[in-house]
């Protein structure tokens, strides 16, 4: 009898151990998927900017390159680029937005393996196009392919999480947050040591292969397809999640693309480029921290996160207008806090959608709700144009 009790205890311990290993395996798989899915997206923005700048240098005169806001004889009070960074943002986000608006209604007809393979091909194509770009249109096309890969991958992987324990959402969120930091640091580091953007992008093609590896750990199953009426009903119920998520990202990217470039302090020991680089780095670190926090912190009050982010945008808009902030060191914690709010809104939105949606509707709901952040980003890009033009004309 005593040996039997020991065997039962050993069996229970073994089951718990296997369960934890499976849980950790799945969490790690989705972390890797999140990292690879957003990696090309992040790197492509930096690389396309470098190559576009190189092409502009080759095709424009020095006097035109020095032109600010359309008139070289009138320098703006703000240190502005001729075109807002929102232009590249729109080229990057609009294909994703189109995919997220349409794909959830038909994407269930394609197996997950095919979707991931297509995303890997799109990402590889974007790397090759931008690395060998000889014209502006090729660089923009490369950014568009990266956008297609990231958008289709995001809604597919979010849908795939419904077949696993809910904690894999934390792995996915942490991986996507890590992509921002890893992509920016790796690209900057390789170019800093002397590699050209072209060689750097070719090295990063490995990411397109790595994204295929976690498919071996998926446990794919299918649920019965929803009718169009049922899908529209689900979308109506998702508005309480999608609207606050969209507002968070509208305020967030309005700051990043409309205001961040204008938050320049000439008397600082840091150059304008260094200040902007630190803004972006701290923002990405904040996103990484909050997207990795789901295991220890959950917030159901999504509208609270939205309003706090709007307050951030209003504060920084007033700071640009009236220049009452003394230096960049005061802006740094605000930007970090901005990243915290955005990342927290993202992971908590999809966690509570997964928790509060019926089983049969959950897969479609996760894909459909992914449009919220892209819609907010696209609207922020549009709003950033007149703001940039206004301040640069002063």
Query: DSSP helix count?
Result: 14
Q: How far from one another are the termini?
A: 88 Å
**Percent range of helical residues:** over 70%
**Outline type:** globular
Q: Quickly count the domains.
A: 2
Record field, number of beta strands:
0
The CATH class of the largest domain is Mainly Alpha
Structural class label: mainly alpha
Taken in chain order, the helices and strands follow as: HHHHHHHHHHHHHH
Mean pLDDT: 82
Give the radius of gyration. Answer: 23 Å
Low-confidence stretches: 61-74
Question: What can you see in these coordinates?
Answer:
It is found in: Endomembrane system; Lysosome membrane. There is one protein chain. By secondary structure, the chain is mainly α. The termini are far apart. It has helices at residues 2-59, 62-65, 86-102, 112-131, 136-160, 168-192, 197-203, 206-210, 228-259, 272-291, 302-322, 328-356, 359-369, 371-392. Mean pLDDT is 82; it is low at 61-74. It has two domains: 1-58 and 109-222, Growth Hormone, Chain: A; 225-394, Up-down Bundle (Growth Hormone, Chain: A).
């Amino acid at each position: 009898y005593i040996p039997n009790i020991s065997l039962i205890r050993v069996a229970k311990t073994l089951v718990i151990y296997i369960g934890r290993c499976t849980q950790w395996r799945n969490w790690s798989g989705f972390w890797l998927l999140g990292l690879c899915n957003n990696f090309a997206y992040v790197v492509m923005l930096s690389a396309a900017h470098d190559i576009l700048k190189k092409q502009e240098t080759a095709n424009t005169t020095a006097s035109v390159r020095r032109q600010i806001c359309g008139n070289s004889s009138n320098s703006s009070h703000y240190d502005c680029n001729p075109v807002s960074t929102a232009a590249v943002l729109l080229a990057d986000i609009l294909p994703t937005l189109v995919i997220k608006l349409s794909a959830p209604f038909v994407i269930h007809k394609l197996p997950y393996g095919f979707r991931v393979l297509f995303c890997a091909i799109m990402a590889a194509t974007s790397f090759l196009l931008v690395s060998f770009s000889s014209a502006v249109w090729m660089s923009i096309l490369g950014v568009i392919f990266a956008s297609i890969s990231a958008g289709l991958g995001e809604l597919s992987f979010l849908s795939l999480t419904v077949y696993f324990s809910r904690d894999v959402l934390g792995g996915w969120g942490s991986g996507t947050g890590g992509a921002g930091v890893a992509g920016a640091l790796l690209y900057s580091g390789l170019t800093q040591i002397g590699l050209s953007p072209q060689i750097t992008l070719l090295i990063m093609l490995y990411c397109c292969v790595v994204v295929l590896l976690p498919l071996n750990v998926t446990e794919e199953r299918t649920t019965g397809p929803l009718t169009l009426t049922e899908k529209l009903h689900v979308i109506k119920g998702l508005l309480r999640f999608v609207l606050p998520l969209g507002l968070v990202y509208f305020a967030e990217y309005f700051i990043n693309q409309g205001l961040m470039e204008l938050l320049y302090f000439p008397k600082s020991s840091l150059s304008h480029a260094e200040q902007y680089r630190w803004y972006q780095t701290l923002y990405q670190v904040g996103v990484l921290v909050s997207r990795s926090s789901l295991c220890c912190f959950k917030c159901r009050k999504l509208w609270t996160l939205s309003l706090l982010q709007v307050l951030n945008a209003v504060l920084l808009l007033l700071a640009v207008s009236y220049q009452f902030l003394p230096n960049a060191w005061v802006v740094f914690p605000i930007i970090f806090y901005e990243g915290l709010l955005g990342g927290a809104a993202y992971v908590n939105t999809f966690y509570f959608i997964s928790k509060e949606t019926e089983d049969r509707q959950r897969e479609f709901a996760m894909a459909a709700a992914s449009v919220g952040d892209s819609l907010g980003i696209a609207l922020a890009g549009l709003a950033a144009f007149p703001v940039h033009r206004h301040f640069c004309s002063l």
